[in-house]
What does this fold into?
Amino acid sequence: MGGLGMATIGDVATRAGVSVATVSRVLNGNTQVSEDRRRKVLKAVKELHYEPNLLGRMLRCSSARTILVVFAIMLPDLIRGILDAAADAGYQVILQFCPGKPADSTQFVMLQSGLADGAILPELQIEDKLLAKLYQQYPIVQIGETTYSQAHIVSVNYEEISYRLTRHLIGQGRRRIATVGIVDQNGEMAYFCRERLAGTRRAIAEAGLSSDPRLHYDGPFGFAAGQAAARYFLSQPERPDAIFCFQDNLAVGCLQELHKAGLRVPEDVAVAGFDNTEISQVIEPPLTTVEQPFYEIGQEAVRTWLLIQGQGNRAIGRQVRLDARMILRESTEGQTK
It folds into this structure.
């Protein structure tokens, strides 16, 4: 081990079985490192109680003027909004990518080492106990939904925009409206899908339509889940005449499977998605969807973080809800009232 009993970056590299350059990339939040190597480095950092440098130790008692952003889905406009707002305030941003699974404590080494002052968590799945601990120790802002009662949240009003889109489908003459949500690795519905489902069900109930539980399907993120959802709905004694998917990739998968089954979209089944991703514009027929103001959400998340910084666990949960916009396209427009 390095002089005076303190671990060096070389000690961490040796313990983790990687190069010094790899250790440096991990500690700087570089996403071009495999998950296996990243975990080995962070494990070695923890075991050796490694402090990256004197500045890192000093930052425990002062501001690093750096915000950690831990995210699971790459949303370029959202990240750009965060980066621009942080730069305007004189802060740097460390990006930490955490795809496909709930975040754990290894994602927050930058906070523990004092290299970041707090964190913004866009649509991140995270255990309640860990989340509560983070809120107690650092200024944290979440983008999207959460079960933590004292959370600071910046989000779209998912319930209201989903209600409005469902009302649009009903206005088009649709009477059996199915929904497709996303579940995490534990089989639990993703936070952001819960409000979307609540808004859809409110519109259906107000219209006096069927609340048949068979008109909902949950699956993982992606095209294949959308295809599986369509096959499930088509296997029922009475198929839906509209399918509202809570993410565009799901909707594209549904469209593909409906076409394979010889059904016309929207004449036989209307399909809608959520997020207005690029594929929603080029798929045939173009997809009705919801556009979220991602750039503005990113900026508002930084503004909220700046407001609560320094208040610690005394800060009262602040919630900011921004409006989304329906994008009506041909995938829902083919049936008269």
Observations:
- The longest strand covers residues 66-71.
- The two ends are 76 Å apart (CA to CA).
